[in-house]
Specification:
Length: 201
Amino acid sequence: MSATILNTLFSSMTGYFFSRKKALRVNKIIFACFLASMVAPFQVYMIPLVKIYGGMLGLSNRIGMVSFVAIGLNVPFAVFLYNGFIEAIPGELDEAATIDGCSFTRTFFEIIFPLLKPIMITVMVFVGLGVWNDYLMTSLFMTKLETRTLSIAAFTFLSNHTADYTPMMAGLVLGIIPVLLFYFAGQKYIIEGVVAGSVKG
């Protein structure tokens, strides 16, 4: 939950900055790097992440560290969608807010941010689903039994010689329910957000 909320806040601000400051060449370069990072799968940099955060810094078995890594991994995709959605919002709103005395930051939070509800719900569903169901990254950092997430704990009932499917399936169903509830609550915004965020700009 914390990774999804922080990702939403940081990515929306970054997407807004990239959208409204397109004249800056450095922004174009950074945005291109964000898009390029979406191509590389997690398996490419999982070993460096484990060596740095788990080995050198000794941050294994800490949920805060897993949330931090999850935020970083999902930022490029979220920024891409937010940037495309904000491109469709008229710049005249920013100009009117500036004339009324709003700063760049205040314009975002009071004018632009409330308009991002469709894309915000979409990003939260996609990012939340990925983080909630993540198995590979979490299994690399959460090695102790007491720190395992639900997706990992469900597979403790499956071993090389035995398989207790009843509690394992119960754990998997429990893992699906929160995501389904959130998806059904915001489903009317999802298609609108994906389309607007991916084809504009």
